[in-house]
Specification:
The protein has a six-stranded mixed beta sheet, covered by helices on one side. Strands 9-10-11-12-14-13 form a six-stranded mixed beta sheet. It has three domains: 6-59, Urease, subunit C, domain 1 (Roll); 82-189, Diaminopimelate Epimerase, Chain A, domain 1; 204-535, TIM Barrel (Alpha-Beta Barrel), CATH 3.20.20. By secondary structure, the protein is of the alpha/beta class. The protein is built from 17 helices and 26 strands.
């Protein structure tokens, strides 16, 4: 076997390379985990070395390997223990799935969705404790999503629905009886207060393995995990050392804040620069399929809790609410400076228009202090970018990790929170791309479902789960959306030279699917099935 002969031939497919010329092909030759050549079946067969493996694509579509630019891997693994409700479209369906799940567990019956909303459920209302009582009355039954948890009567009796935290709501029926619905900050009153709370005791290692396998099942050849602490870093390393990660994983250590409130909320999930030095972790360090990415920071909060920091107030009784931050501006600047001083780039959670301006300005100030950023920095979420932010991003080379699925899953709620005009500008992908911003596609799972085909559909249609088109002018094409989930995410990782497209010399990472998403009706895209996920020429998932 020489460098000019292939040890793997994929043939008989339709290959979208996503190279600059838009080349398509039918076959790919792979040597030692990298792409040797791309072309016709006959051309690639001539490159096959002795003992080369051959995979017949049988007409399937071959894409560059997808990369989720923002997915909480261990949380996805934990949530896999819950009833799957992300695509449930009625209360009856939710109840049926919970009943089925109840047959598989002796303890609490828990379900997870993206955003239970009246407009996306056939009954036109939210589930209540009474609905969940039909699943079980002798053990806890709970469902949770991004901004609410709903409990059965057994759990409800353990909570005082009148003792609400600031920003929390617990609606009641006309007679004054609590419905068992806990909204926004009131979620924290329930046993499922956190974004990925689980009743499962599985280990961190097991959760990471499950999360990565689940990502591979949906076509991801790589992920960027945005919050890791010392425990999860050790777990990732152990998995890679002992059995190998099933797909590529870049991980972002969450830097510890000195702000008391943030330290209390996030402390166990964070690390210090000294921690990273002690365990031999450095920016860009690669250990097999594991890579250390940027430092993760956070600033303002979440639009689904009406806490993204905005220039204009929220609507419907929120005239004095402009959102909030987790840390003061000076602490944000201190953390950026600390990360840069230690040689790490940063990825920063920021959401509202005022928030993104503050964060972009802080990054630029940090760069000015050191002369040059240690690596590519990116902003995470960015629901409402501004001209100021775009100008800074252009000067500093900032990218955006966006979550198109939010448009579909959250759209109706966002409209209620900020009004029609601002809702149409929510996550404006068209504007981002037109302003020359590198955009990486992801899902922020388990906050929303990490199905990239739903994300691509949402980016191309901007259709909410309620059926409304939210900001038609901000649609992007399917190919542009696909590039976000491939080349865009690779660029956030600073790996665009070796990942993100099917070109000679790049890693042999491919996503094989059952339909041509670049040619079919848009409404068929969410039903896309992954046939194979291939990482470095090895099959990570096969249907």
């Amino acid at each position: 076997m020489t460098d000019k002969t292939a040890d793997l031939i994929l043939f008989g497919g339709k290959v979208y390379t996503l190279d600059a010329a838009g080349t398509t092909a039918t076959a790919i030759a792979v040597s030692k985990g990298t792409i040797l050549a791309v072309g016709s079946d006959d051309q690639m067969e001539k490159l096959a070395g002795p003992g080369a493996r051959r995979i017949n694509m049988a007409g399937a579509i071959v894409l560059p390997g997808l990369i989720d630019s923002h997915i909480h891997v261990s949380s996805v693994g934990q949530v896999s223990e819950m009833a799957f409700l992300y695509d449930a479209r009625s209360i009856a369906e939710i109840v049926d799935r919970l009943k089925d799940h109840a047959q598989k567990t002796r303890g609490a019956v828990v379900g997870r969705g993206g955003n239970f909303h009246e407009s996306s459920l056939a009954e036109g209302r939210l589930p209540t404790a009474a609905d969940l009582d039909s699943v079980a009355t002798d053990r806890p039954v709970m469902i949770t999503d991004v901004n609410k948890t709903i409990v059965n009567s057994l759990v409800l009796r353990t909570i005082d629905p009148d003792d609400l935290p600031p920003g929390g709501e617990a609606p009641k029926d006309p007679s004054g009886k609590p419905l068992g619905v806990f909204l926004y900050a009131a979620k924290m009153m329930t046993p499922l207060g956190g974004p990925s709370a689980s009743v499962s005791p599985i280990s961190t290692e097991e959760a990471i393995i499950r999360g990565l396998r689940e990502a591979a099942r949906l076509g991801h050849t790589g992920v960027l995990d945005p919050i890791v602490n010392r425990e999860s870093i050790a777990a990732y390393r152990a998995i890679e050392r002992e059995q190998g990660l099933p797909i590529r994983a870049s991980i972002m250590p969450r830097l510890r804040s000195a702000t008391p409130g943030e330290l209390k909320r996030m402390g166990p999930l964070t690390v210090t620069v000294a921690d990273l030095e002690r365990i031999g972790a450095s920016a860009g360090l690669q250990e097999g399929r594991l890579t250390f990415g940027p430092i993760k920071l956070g600033f303002d909060r979440w639009i689904m809790h009406r806490t993204a920091l905005m220039y204009e107030p929220y609507v419907v009784g929120q005239a004095d609410n402009f959102g909030s931050t987790g840390v003061p501006e000076e602490e944000l600047q201190r953390q950026i400076d600390e990360a840069f001083g230690a040689g790490w780039s940063v990825g920063i959670h920021t959401t509202g228009d005022r928030g993104v301006d503050i964060v972009a300005s802080a990054i630029e100030k940090g760069i000015e202090k050191v002369g040059q950023a240690p690596g590519r920095c990116h902003l995470i979420h960015v629901y409402y970018p501004t001209d100021k932010m775009f100008d800074i991003a252009g000067r500093c080379g900032l990218a955006i990790a966006a979550q198109p699925t939010f448009i579909r899953t959250w759209g109706e709620t966002v409209r209620a929170f900020v009004g029609q005009e601002r809702a149409e500008r929510f996550s404006p992908l068209r504007t981002m791309l037109d302003r020359g911003i590198t955009v990486g596609g992801g899902a922020d799972s388990p906050i929303t479902w990490h199905n990239p085909w739903v994300g691509i559909y949402a980016a191309a249609t901007r259709k909410t789960e309620g059926g409304r088109i939210l900001g038609e002018k901000e649609r992007i094409t399917v190919e542009e959306a696909l590039r976000c989930y491939t080349l865009g995410s690779a660029a956030i990782l600073e790996k665009e030279e070796i990942r993100g497209s099917i070109e000679v010399g790049k890693l042999a990472d491919f996503t094989v699917i059952d339909r041509d998403i670049l040619a079919i009706d848009l409404e068929q895209i969410p039903a896309t099935k992954v046939l194979k996920t291939i990482v470095g020429g090895e099959i990570a998932y096969e249907a």
